[in-house]
Structure formats: C-alpha cells, structure tokens
Amino acid sequence: MTGWNAREIPDQSGRTAVVTGANSGIGYVTARELARCGARVVLACRDAARGKAAEERIRAAAPGADVQFAPLDLADLSSVRAFAADLPGDRLDLLINNAGVMALPQRRTVDGFEMQFGTNHLGHFALTGLLLPRLREAGHGARVVTVASGLHVLGTVDPRDLNMEHRYRRWIAYGRSKSANLLFTHELAERLTAEGSRVVAAAAHPGYAATNLQTAGARMEGRATAERLTELANRLFAQSAEAGALPTLYAATAPDVRQDDYFGPRFGSAGAPTRRTVRAPWTRNERASAGLWAASERLTGVTYHWL
Length: 307
Hints:
With 307 residues, the chain is an alpha/beta fold. It has helices spanning 25-36, 48-61, 77-86, 115-138, 170-194, 216-220, 224-237, 241-244, 246-253, 286-300; strands at 16-20, 40-45, 66-71, 94-97, 143-147, 200-204, 262-265, 273-274.
C-alpha cells in the first residue's frame, strides 16, 4: 500500500455515492475524485450556496462528471429524514459519512443533542440507517465509510452522559464523538456480518490535514487571534486536503477492504494510507458498541431493520 494515491482508484462507473460535507476540505476532494473516476456523486451539504459552488468546481475539474448537490443538515434529524426520502433511485453503492464539527463552544442541535455528538455521530447514525436498504440493494461492493479521527483517543463515550450535560469540555466532546464513530462502525460491521450482508462498514481518518474544520470553533467565538494562529499552523505543519482524503478514498474503493477496517496516514498524521491503523481498544468493546447503538436508536428514532 506504500505510495497509494488517487490515480489507483478503480473505475467507479455505474456506482452512486453520497458524500456528506462535500462542499470543502476532505469531503470535497473525496467527492471530486469519485466523480473523476466515473461515479455519480451526491454532494450532501448543509449550506446550499457552498454546495452548489462545489458542484460547479467539480464539473470544471472533471468535465462530464455526474454530480448533484442535495441539502442535508446533520444537526437536524428532520433534514436527515428529508434527504433520505428525496434521494432519487433505489440503489446506493457508497455512503461516505464525512461531515463533522470540531472543538466547538457548547452548542445544541435542533433536536437538543450536544452539537459534536449530535452532528458527528447521531446524524450519521440516522442517515446510514435510513439509507441502508439502498446499500443492501447494491449488494457486493457497497460500503459505508465513516470518517473518524486520531483524536478519538481523547476519550470514549460516557453512557451516563452522552450529551455532556456535566462539565462540557470541547476537545473531550470531540474525542468522544469520534470514538462514537468507531464504535458505530464496529457494531455495524458486526451486524452486517451476522446477517450475511455483502455491505462493508469501514472507517478512516485523515491525519492532520489543512481544512476549515480546525478554525470553526475560534471563528464562532470571535477569537480572531486563535483563528489566525490555527491557520498559520495549518500552512506550516498540515498536509493538504488532497492527501488527507486518501484514507477515505482507499476505504471506499480499494479491493482488499474488510469489515471494521480502519485506515489512516502511514506516518500517523501524514502520508499514504496504511491498513488497520492504530485505534483505541475501547472502540472494539462489544458492550460499549451495543449500548451506544441502542441509545442511538432511541435518541434518533431510527431503527435499523435486519434480515
């Protein structure tokens, strides 16, 4: 896998992909490269202006690309349900759960969940459940790829305080939401295997990539100095969004991906993707993953139906 890059993505003609948060950063690069390789790509974005601008940029970068913006706000479960109901066609080959927020000041989603847990995990949990019948229809080669983070090591979910009602700490909340992504992937993989499904659930993390994710919290609070320092650090130390998207693209398209695989940069924060990168042991804890799953169904009202 050493040196793997986007030129090695297999032909995606005839396949349909949904990429959340596809208007910028890693999501944009992921959507662009899938479209360049022949996939029909739905850009699932909260901001309509940015989503449509991304659609035009992809068409300019990949003439003939089949791309379409569709509105999706993962912090609003009614928006998640509307997106799933309005998505055209009966078949879906790839669901890339990419969108996310990082280290925000304490905020709540429309439905009252802590913003990072609600957006990064619960929104994608609901979306995947609602779209799973279409993924099953695609059968062999269909995948759910959820973008986690190396910072999941900051903490696992607390079943007694999923929404961090007590002593909110932005970075711990982020780490917990990313651990939730990996626990979700683990439990989904287990359930898909048990039912004999050919749909594969895998995860990836980008390492330290220069995107606007890092500056959002400072911008929301009007901390201009912190925002400028973060932008400077991105320029000096981070890899590009193109490089950061490679683990996601590998998880979505490489032929040797298996259930519950987790890919990240070869050197921890940069480099080509490496198979089964390091993850905290708690992200494969059966009791924790099953408990989070049950809580997620209860909180979102989305129940997965198994064969």
